[in-house]
Amino acid sequence: MAEPEMGVEIFTDWKVGGPIIVTGHHNNVDFENKGTVLQFEPNSILRYSHLSSISRLPDRAESYTVIEFWLVRTAENSTSLTIRTFNFPSESIFKHWEFYWRVTIEVVKQFIESSQQQTTVPIPSKSGLAA
Fold first, then answer.
1. Rounded distance, CA 82 to CA 11, Å?
2. Is the pLDDT of residue 31 over 90?
3. pTM across the whole model
4. Most buried residue among 16, 63, 86, 125 by CB atoms closer than 10 A?
């Protein structure tokens, strides 16, 4: 989830071993994050390596962070999202990632909660009473 003015685009075929490239513009800087899809199971798991052009780190294995997203259905209308990361090459990169993901998780939470409220509100019948 990104601000529309960031112009974020994701390029990948979602195949394990294939590239994943995220481009955009943030704080007057163009960026290109790149990596490799390490694991992908639709509606379940996404694991990929990640190197941001903004980090200015060399394109070597030790410069890449691994990011995992796990979705697990916990009940009929409930899903758990777990995000795990490995191998941050520096404390400042970790702090940057942590800040932006804290904001992103809050946006996701608000979106889900507003969607739940919309689906649980009774729909009035023509007489104005709940159906």
1. 23
2. no
3. 0.73
4. 63
